[in-house]
Amino acid sequence: MKIKDLEFKKFITAAKINEKIKELGAQLNEDYQQKKPLLLPILNGSFIFAADLIRELKVDCRVSFVKHASYQGTQSSGQLNTLIGLNESLFNQDIIIIEDIMDTGLTLSKVINEFGTLGVKSVEIVTLVRKAPARAHAVQPKYIGFDIDDEFVLGYGLDYDGYGRNLKDIYKALLPETTK
Ligand code: 5GP
Description:
- It contains 3 helices and 12 strands; from the N terminus they run E-E-H-E-H-E-E-E-E-E-H-E-E-E-E.
- By secondary structure, it is α/β, with parallel strands linked by helices.
- The longest helix is centred in the N-terminal third of the chain and has 18 residues, at 14-31.
- The model is unreliable at 77-81 (pLDDT under 50).
């Protein structure tokens, strides 16, 4: 399949994603049974994952979408803009950050640092995908859908320059080794 200038091939099927989301939902239901977590999906990429995961939850919870942008094309720009859209007070809350994919870990570590000053009760991360470089990072998600190599992926909410979010499966780019 071609999107813009890149070839992609199917990588993680919709069926596998659905199965994994049920597992993650069951873990969260178990771990948060006595709590009322505030879920913070990070837009845009996590919107489909969040919608599916949240519908697996049986605990009392609230959802507030937040947004930043640190990615252009297939390379992380290394910049993180301030989070926008956060209208709730995080004080004394059990926060669950819902991320689509963790690559360098820069985005999540900045978000976690920002939260550190806000008096949260607890903060955990659930990420659908963790890429190889993220495994070396100090900040680690407690809940991980899929561990993958350093591939550029799209589909199921993840985009390539805005395209591909609508795909039900996750695809990986067939990149020349030098640009990975
Ligand atoms: P990090 O700060 O961990 O390097 O990057 C995290 C963000 O970069 C993710 O939330 C996601 O938006 C974007 N990202 C990282 N890797 C990929 C990828 O393989 N595909 C897509 N579509 N986005 C990615």
